[in-house]
Amino acid sequence: MSLPIPRIHFYEINDQSWFPPFLREKVQAALTLLWTTRFPLVQSLAPASIVARILQSVLGPAIREYTFIDFCSGAGGPTPKLEREVNKALALESIDKYHAKKQQISNRRKDATAPANGNGKPTDHDHDNDYSSSSVDFILTDIFPHIPSWKLACSHSAHLHYIPSPINA
């Protein structure tokens, strides 16, 4: 497929070693703001929220099997918001499953014609509530780590981590 205009290649000047660190931090903060802010007349959701929903819909239940690594995190970018939204959705899903299972056990106890394990008593499996494993981990990395921003973001979640040493992706 041919595009009517040539592809535009953006050059991230702030990722150059000679770029002043104080300006790099401003650029990184601005990019984070753009990813996490919803502009009401233009967007129904912030871009990071859209990405979180796409991850959940494309990966489905298999999302729990992944650890997400952001190789160009800057000052955090969309990753802290992605982590919050994905894990919040997974937690709500787990709570719904827990309540549904609890209701199912309650219904079995009321119905004497359908014993849980043949003797009318619930099985050990009926009490399984391992919903703590429903969270997904996210890891921040960058060639120029913005540690203060990452520490702050990670202090709000047990599932958000960072690698403090520079990583050139």
Short description:
The protein has 169 residues and is mainly α. The protein contains four helices and three strands, in the order ααβαβαβ.
Q: Could you characterize what this model shows?
A:
The structure is a single chain. By secondary structure, the chain is mostly helical. The protein contains four helices and three strands. It has helices at residues 21-36, 47-59, 79-110, 147-154, and strands at 67-70, 137-140, 160-162. A three-stranded parallel β-sheet has the order 1-2-3. Helix 3 (79-110) links the parallel strand 1 (67-70) and strand 2. It is globular. It starts with 20 loop residues before the first helix and ends in a 7-residue tail after the last strand. Mean pLDDT is 82; it is low at 114-132.
Name the descriptors.
single chain, 169 residues, mainly alpha, three-stranded parallel β-sheet, 4 helices, 3 strands, globular
* Count of helical regions: 4
Low-confidence spans: pLDDT under 50, at least 5 residues? 114-132
Spatial ordering of strands, largest sheet: 1-2-3
Q: Main β-sheet, in a few words?
A: 3 strands, parallel
Residue-averaged pLDDT, rounded? 82
List the topology elements.
Layout lengths: L20 H16 L10 H13 L7 E4 L8 H32 L26 E4 L6 H8 L5 E3 L7
Parallel strand pairs: 1-2, 2-3
